[in-house]
Amino acid sequence: MSSEEVGANTWAAAEKAVQAEAMAEAMVGLEETFTMLMDDLAGYTGWISSGYVAVRDDLQPEVHKVQQNGISLANGIQAGASEIALNDYEAGDRFSEAWAEMPDVNFRPDRPEGAELF
Questions:
Q1: What is the rounded average pLDDT for all residues in the chain?
Q2: Which alpha helices (DSSP H) does the chain contain, by range?
Q3: Phi, psi (5° rounding) for residue 76?
Q4: Which end of the chain is more exposed for a tag (fewer CB within 10 A), N or C?
Q5: What digits encode the pLDDT tens for the residues 28-39?
Q6: What domain range includes position 106?
Q7: Apex 28 CA angle, 27 and 29, nearest 5
Q8: Residue 19 — φ and ψ, nearest 5°?
Q9: Is 93 part of a structural domain of the chain?
Q10: d(CA 103, CA 99)
Q11: From what superkingdom does this record's organism come (predicted)?
Q12: Is 62 buried (19+), middle (13-18) or exposed (0-12) by CB count in 10 A?
């Protein structure tokens, strides 16, 4: 692809979306797990337990943000891959006559429905 062209590999984008979704699923419950671990640690530390409680209270909002960002990332990648595939599919008919040898955009001959939108 030259520097004047813009494009995306929708199959690679879909694979990255699957990976991001798996990461987001792994983060489900992260905030609760963090809180539980910090509470358990505080229970074993005796007179310095207030330090663990303070750290928990300070970091809990940040752990929540990490969890939410993972979900947002997965949603964004999936939406981007889907929009690219849809755009390619909708524009495919207009450009297929320009180059006769150009294959159908996002066409999967192994699928009965042909085009796949993510």
A1: 79
A2: 10-27, 30-44, 49-95
A3: -65, -45
A4: N
A5: 899 999 999 999
A6: 10-40+57-118
A7: 105
A8: -65, -40
A9: yes
A10: 9
A11: Bacteria
A12: exposed
